[in-house]
Design a protein that fits this description.
The chain is an alpha+beta fold and 321 residues long. It contains 7 helices and 16 strands. The chain is 24% helix and 21% strand. The strands form 5 sheets. Strands 1, 2, 3, 4, 5, 8, 9 and 10 form an 8-stranded mixed sheet that branches. Strands 6-7 form a two-stranded antiparallel sheet. It binds zinc ion.
Length: 321
């Protein structure tokens, strides 16, 4: 398996600060799993401590915590992670506390505080609904412990855009429609970006097509749902920015890519005037959405497809009329 060495030339890989291979390898594995739903039985095989510990895990031989695991039956329910348009996320992990205060004498908390001090990444696992009757976790990915409020640790997903450092919580990065990379992006970095884009787009669009709202599922996983780019990757459209994306079923994705339809900056559906298409599409529901607003969009407007990307698409669409 290929080891991800660095996120980009501009961002030193935080994993490289972990000198002990026994802990570095699991962190690399968590990064490879980012966004995926993994069975607990698989995690027990590959993740140190997973079959014995819940909450925060700090290996006895390390001064740093290695991972955090949120179970559905946790005493202190956590909140859902917040995703930012640039693909990063924040996750607030509630800790067991005494009299409402964090007990800093516990080795696990010390391990997490040490991560915060040294910028050492920590893995985050959250239990999901069972997959075919088996316990499963969503691997949120690697994060940096940014701060502690006394009751919660605030963990920030590691950055994958060249714009290096994650922005402060609540700050939205300006939308840059095209990939700009002064240095060629490593293949592994590109894959990581695509994976993050796919998993977050799925979540933002409630695992349903933005147009027809179909959300196929089988064996506990989504099926025939694609995270589509508004400005295609082959046109150098930005890969990991959520505002260059939307979730479509495979059918509507193919028709979108074929410029049979698009949407305007008010998210209203436009269908090609091509008569042959319109006749051949009679049996398809696509025509029924014409002039209507896309029914399934993210809960937060900051994550909607960006106007610049929509306009690029519209002009390509018009050229093909
Ligand atoms: Zn659809």
């Amino acid at each position: 398996m290929k080891v991800i060495q660095a996120l980009s030339a501009a961002v030193p890989d935080p994993i490289s600060s972990v000198s002990d291979f026994r802990f570095r390898r699991p962190l690399e594995r968590i990064r490879e799993w980012e966004g995926e739903i993994v069975l607990a039985s698989e995690l027990q095989k590959e993740m140190p401590g997973f079959n014995a510990y819940k909450g925060i895990y700090k290996p006895a031989l390390s001064t740093h915590a290695l991972w955090i695991r949120q179970t559905n039956r946790g005493v202190y329910p956590d909140s859902d992670p917040v995703f930012y348009p640039d693909g990063s996320w924040t996750y607030r992990y509630s800790v067991e506390s005494q009299h409402g205060k964090l007990d800093e004498s516990l080795a696990t908390y010390k391990g997490l505080l040490q991560c915060m001090k040294d910028g050492t990444p920590v893995g985050v696992f959250r239990q999901t609904a069972d997959v075919s009757g088996k316990t499963a976790y969503r691997v949120l990915g690697l994060g940096i412990v940014e701060e502690t409020t006394g009751k919660q640790f605030i963990i920030r997903g590691e950055p994958i855009n060249e714009t290096s450092k994650p922005l402060s919580e609540g700050v939205v990065a300006p939308f840059k429609p095209f990939e700009f990379s002064p240095t060629p992006v490593e293949e592994v970095v590109r894959k990581l970006r695509e994976r993050r884009f796919t998993s977050i787009i799925r979540e933002l669009y409630h695992e349903k097509c933005s147009l027809c709202e179909v959300g196929y599922r089988m064996h506990g996983r989504p099926l025939a749902l694609d995270a589509a780019h508004v400005i295609p990757v082959k046109e150098k459209g930005v890969i990991a920015d959520l505002r260059n994306g939307l979730l479509l079923c495979s059918n509507h994705h193919a028709l979108f890519d074929g410029y049979a339809w698009t949407f305007d900056k008010d998210y209203r559906v436009l269908v090609t005037e091509d008569r042959e298409f319109r006749q051949s599409a009679m049996a398809n529901h696509l025509l029924g959405w014409e002039d209507k607003r896309l029914p399934n969009l993210p809960s937060s407007q900051t994550n909607y497809p960006a106007t610049e990307a929509i306009e690029w698409r519209l002009s390509e669409f018009r050229e093909r009329q």
